Amino acid sequence: MDTIGDILRTERENRNLLLRQASALLEIDQAILSKIERNERKATKEQLNGFAKVYELDIETLLILWLGEKIYKNIENEDFPLKALKVAEEKVKYNKTKK
Amino acid sequence: MDTIGDILRTERENRNLLLRQASALLEIDQAILSKIERNERKATKEQLNGFAKVYELDIETLLILWLGEKIYKNIENEDFPLKALKVAEEKVKYNKTKK
DNA sequence: TGTACATTTGACACATCTTGTCAAGACAAA
DNA sequence: TTTGTCTTGACAAGATGTGTCAAATGTACA
Q1: Are B68 and B2 in contact (CB under 8 A)?
Q2: Contacts of A94 in chain B (CB under 8 A)
Q3: How many domains does one find in chain A?
Q4: Closest by alpha carbon to B41, among B51, B32, B50?
């Protein structure tokens, strides 16, 4: 299952960019970039926009994956993750109609 | 749509407990309890267990609702919440089989 | 092997978010 | 007003997130 880190690493390699070069383009410290690509750190939302721009990736796809992983990190060690997701989903739908 | 706060306030009132009394039983500061019941603060997991014990509520139900609200707070102001939830769900299922 | 270059790791400081504590404010009933 | 209940806001301590840097590790090849 592809993680954001996997994708970003692949995209960088497809462009034949070294970490050093990509980190300059992205204005992200090389150490942080390394960690993001190995899923040791989560990118900030701002950094995510940078990736989309520099690598010309679809920001929507990236955002969804990024948020999905954020959610997952919240629930991976909890007891009833799927039921909790269902609750969250219902709340989203409910509050959409309410507006 | 019932929030944890709503439920906890109702349960306390059903038992004719004042905030002061409930906060003593629960060993939670009264100000915090007030805020939890009005959904201004989220209970900690430990406090949640306290509620279940003192009010004799099903801890599983409480946990699911609590986690669901936590997830929801993460996504309510994001652009593609439902798709992100789907991603998280797939990750949960995928990592379940992996173990 | 040694050297140059790329990547990873870990320690640190700084900022932001979370949590608990407390006192004062708001509100209702008598 | 007085009394009792609930709410609000300010604060401190702790936890978590983020960026920076230098040292350590890994890799290719002369």
Answers
A1: no
A2: 1
A3: 1
A4: B32
Q: Which nucleotides of chain D are near protein (any atom < 7 Å from a CB)?
A: 5-10, 17-22
- Please report the pLDDT score of residue A11 as a whole number: 98
Please say whether the beta carbons of B54 and B60 come within 8 A: no
Across the range B34-57, mean pLDDT stands at: 98
Q: Indicate the pLDDT class of residue B99, thresholds 50, 70 and 90.
A: low
- pLDDT-flagged residues of chain A (< 50): none
Q: Is A58 helix (H, G, I), strand (E, B) or coil?
A: coil
* CATH number of the structural domain spanning residue B47: 1.10.260.40
Tell me which chain A residues have a C-beta less than 8 angstroms from the C-beta of B65: 87
Q: Which pLDDT does position A98 carry in this prediction?
A: 74
Token pair of A90 as six digits: 């219902």
Domain coverage including residue A35: 4-98
| CA–CA dist A7, A13 (Å, integer) | 10
